[in-house]
Amino acid sequence: MTDPSPPELAARLRGSGYRLTPQRELILRAVQRLSHATPDEVLAEVRRESSAVNLSTVYRTLEVLEELGLIRHAHLSDRAPTYHSATGQDHFHVVCRNCGKVTSVDPEVAAEFVARLRAEHGFVPDLGHLAVFGACVDCEDAATPHHHD
């Protein structure tokens, strides 16, 4: 699925009782450009084009865009959630607790986990909200003492 054009976006918003304002369009485009961005990061990006947007507008618009299925959020830290386009490839996230690196992972990697949750617990997870925390290989290697013979 590709990102909606302005006329498609306007039609989706109207179909749900909203209208396409310049602010909503700017905020959606910012999320699409930034990929995984907090509301503050979205605001900073939008303010490059318009100073007429404030943080409460960003939060309200993100909520509307998520309700319409255009964006998703994930909790990738103890900070504010990050938002990304829902039209890209499905993925979940692995987050390094040491350096903060976020990697998007294909859900196929978790297929066995998903199958077991369904079979053993009657549960189907929403992997788009999944974040697995740990250490990336670079940080793990840096933390491991190297022995020189």
Automatic annotation (TrEMBL):
Keywords: DNA-binding, Repressor, Transcription, Transcription regulation, Zinc. Pfam families: FUR. One of its GO terms (biological process) is negative regulation of DNA-templated transcription. SUPFAM superfamilies: Winged helix' DNA-binding domain. The keyword Hydrolase does not apply. The keyword Transcription regulation applies. GO terms for molecular function: DNA-binding transcription factor activity; transcription cis-regulatory region binding; zinc ion binding. Belongs to the Fur family. This is Nickel uptake regulator, Fur family.
